[in-house]
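fyi for ur records
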Amino acid sequence: MKRIAGKCPTTQDFADLVNESVQRLMKRGAWFNTEVPVYLCVYQGCFVPPRYVLEIRKVNLCHQALPVHNLYYQFMPAYQHNCGYQGWQESGVGFSQAGTSPVFQDVMGDGRLVRAYARANADLGKTLTIFGTDNNGQPLSTYNPDGTVSPGVIITLANPFGSTATYVRHIDRIIRDATQDIVDVYAYNATTNLLEPVGQYEPNDTNPEFARYKLTAPWPYLSTGSVQPNCCGTAQGVMALVKLRYIEAVNDTDLVLIDDLSALKKMVLSIIREDAGDFEGAKAFEADAVNTLNRQLENHNPEDQFAASNNTFGPQVWTNQAF
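which gave:
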């Protein structure tokens, strides 16, 4: 990589080339180790996956595969729902995209202060600003000593914690300083003296925004023939196949999700050609990088080990390649 990039591996220029290569390639397909199964927990029918998840592709609930619907599914023309055991794929049951969220769990009621806990002393004094509404439905605001008003309320990390001075009912957005370690955020219920988890932020989560999904599973028929309201209750674990999000590598120990060195080299050459104005050469190297990743997919997932339809893209011969 050093020879191809023409940069010292310890420089920011080298890191930028590698990061841009990974970012571009991850948009081109579900490459090996970029689409993985995870076990997730859904609370009250809503779910915000961890930061490393870009999108949920498949879901298994109660030993049945559920369809995953995009953001526009709920705006399609209505039709008669059939929520029977054999009808899940043709019913309203499923996981639906519901925009994005800066928290993995909403504030659960009135009378909550928001507390932030730093895991490293080096992060004390750093701040995060919360935008949203208070108990009265009014926008959160800060009244400054000079008489001006700023949107949002600021939490300064302190020992043992930093806290808002006002109650927070809903969080719409968070911006925060980069930190050395993870910061945990909770809603503090003063009535019960309990902390309710709201969010957990990685060091470079300066403007956190995560995919949000809604689970719809009304009165499904189980294989026994019985009917139960929400077969899995208010908190349910599900198996999901997810596409991983591109996250910029900052430290030497950070993961580089495109792990085929040959493909990375070709993508670096593509970027170098593009920067030099050779767009045809850049396209050729990018296509070669994608081709290399397809060969990696075939090596790890032979075509005789999975089922595929041969008419999805027309009558041509099918393959498991992504491009």
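The chain has three domains: 2-29+257-302, 35-101+211-244, 112-208. thats all i got for now
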